[in-house]
Design a protein that fits this description.
Blueprint (H helix, E strand, L loop, with lengths): L12 E2 L3 H29 L2 H28 L1 E4 L3 E6 L5 E6 L3 E7 L2 H6 L1 E8 L6 E7 H17 L5
Antiparallel strand pairs: 1-2, 2-3, 3-4, 5-6, 6-7
Helix pairs in contact: 1-2
């Protein structure tokens, strides 16, 4: 069954480990800030210490789960290039592979928010005429994003696509 998700040729190129760090940072912020606000509100307004403890335990459990999830999620992302297609894989429980023929690429989109830029990573999106064959590769290093953008744009031009 694992051969179903083998790369078409060579090996999968992993995304940057900085994606894992970014996911962990965002997770800690998104869980800690609401949990602290909820704990302070419950402590000041209701003084139900058991509820404060319950919120704190739930927040810690969420952070531990998310910490482990971020590592597995980052490891599941990968891409591979061959002569005709770009292959993208992702997913831990539900794996998915998308093969995008270079000739079908309409345009290539590279995006990076302020936090992604501070980590030196970007997201490369390939758009085709069909939304089902579009592909997104998050956590690509800036150098790989530039290389992918230039290569995919050039291959799209030579293969008769809309680029």
């Amino acid at each position: 069954m694992d051969s179903l998700f083998d790369p078409p040729a060579g090996a999968w190129q992993p995304v940057s480990v900085k994606l894992r760090t970014l996911h962990r940072l965002m997770l800690v912020l998104w869980i800690t800030i609401p949990a602290v606000i909820a704990c302070v509100a419950v402590a000041l307004l209701l003084q139900w210490w058991w509820l404060v403890a319950l919120i704190a335990v739930a927040a810690v459990a969420g952070i531990v789960w998310g910490w482990l999830w971020a590592a597995r999620n980052q490891a599941a992302w990968g891409f591979a290039e061959n002569a005709e297609d770009l292959w993208v894989r992702h997913g831990v429980a539900w794996r998915r592979i998308v093969a995008v023929p270079y000739g079908r690429v309409q345009y290539v989109d590279v995006t990076a928010g302020p936090i992604e830029r501070s980590y030196g990573i970007a997201k490369v999106s390939l758009h085709t005429a069909s939304s089902n064959t579009s592909a997104v590769i998050p956590g690509v290093t800036a150098d790989d994003a530039v290389r992918l953008r230039d290569r995919l744009t050039e291959l799209g031009k030579t293969r008769g696509s809309g680029i």
